[in-house]
Amino acid sequence: MKKFPLFVLMAAAALAQAPKPEVLAPYLPTPLSIVEQMLDLGKLKAGEKMFDLGSGDGRIIFMAAQKYHADATGVELDNDLYASSQSKIRQLGLTQTARIIHGDILTQDYSSADLITVYLLPESNIKARPLLERQLKKGTRIVAHDFPVGGWTPVKTVTIPDDGEGRSHTLMLYIR
Hints:
The chain is an alpha/beta fold. It is built from five helices and seven strands; from the N terminus they run ααβαβαββαβββ. Helix 2 crosses helix 3. The longest helix has 14 residues.
């Protein structure tokens, strides 16, 4: 049996006890027509840096990089969604302008963002708000899908009627 130094055993024990990141929203894909409207509402321009918090299957990242020529980063906690998104980035040839961070949205650095997109639950938006308030530069745009960022007042709200998918959507634009 191999013996490990005490510091290795202590580090392994600490990792085993480290709290797991909290899942802040269920995976619910945003319809592509809504993705485009989110990026349009956020006035995403070529070369701008955008982040999608809880990027799911990466569809917002793919469109931001392909259609808008933005520097697009998603943050996704789920292992399978992360792996699938990474694979699709390579398939689409977007490795220079799109990436997915496999991690907790509450531990990332968004200070370079020009645009943030979120489709999180209301309580999750509230959890992310202090981090965004600390990090985002003046003028950064945030587009929230369906659920507001509690404590912030949107500068514009757009309601998109049901387009055959069974429900309407609401988009809120905030500017820091």
